[in-house]
Amino acid sequence: MITVRPATIKDLDTVADLFDQYRIFYKQASDIPKAKEFLKERMEGNESVILLAFANDEAVGFTQLYPIFSSVSMRRAWLLNDLFVKTSARKTGVGNKLLNAAKDFGAKTNAKWLILETSEDNFTAQSVYEGNGWQKSSSFFYQFNL
């Protein structure tokens, strides 16, 4: 059985381990202490919301949402910046549960929309997103790297 709940500071070690694996997937060096520090700052500063997925009692994935705002609608929106599922738990519905939990959270907070970005060649993730009702947008294509 897969469950999803918001992470708390008590989950820091668990989330940091998953976050480190996520970063390794994106070809970053492992750095658990830095991951803990980064996540602790986000959690303590209420700068993000982390949803943690469990299969039975094992943490198997997470998603991290950052608040943004829509000036035109004068409402909050959420950037789904990170989503990760352990290799051993892929294709078991964990990603779907996390995406649904993010949508529920967005609705609960009266958000205007949720947005995410993934690599152009991450076809597996794209199919999961599209299968959950997310739509590709050709309207927005600007990026400025600092």
UniProtKB/TrEMBL annotation:
Q: Which domain of life is it from?
A: Bacteria
GO molecular-function terms, A-Z: acyltransferase activity, transferring groups other than amino-acyl groups
Which species is this UniProt entry from?
Answer: Pinibacter aurantiacus
Q: Which Pfam families match?
A: Acetyltransf_1
Keyword set, alphabetical order: Acyltransferase, Transferase
Which PANTHER family does UniProt cross-reference here? AMINOALKYLPHOSPHONATE N-ACETYLTRANSFERASE-RELATED, AMINOALKYLPHOSPHONATE N-ACETYLTRANSFERASE-RELATED-RELATED
Q: Does the keyword NADP apply?
A: no
Q: Which residues form the N-acetyltransferase domain?
A: 2-146
- This chain belongs to the protein called GNAT family N-acetyltransferase
